[in-house]
Amino acid sequence: MTNVLINAPKTAKKGEVIELKALIMHTMETGFRPGTNGRIIPRNIIERFTASWNGSEIFRMDFSPAIAANPFVSFFAVASESGKITFRWTGDEGFAAEESVAIDVA
Amino acid sequence: MAGTTRRTFIAGAALVSVLPLASARATPEAMAAAIKEVVGDNAIREGRVTLDVPPLVENGNAVPLTVSVESPMTEADHVKAIHVFNEKNPQPHVFDARLSPKNGKAMIATRIKLGDSQKIVAIAETSKGEFFSASADVIVTLAACLEDLT
Question: What are the Ig-like SoxY domain coordinates in residue numbering (chain B) (predicted)?
Answer without folding.
Answer: 36-145
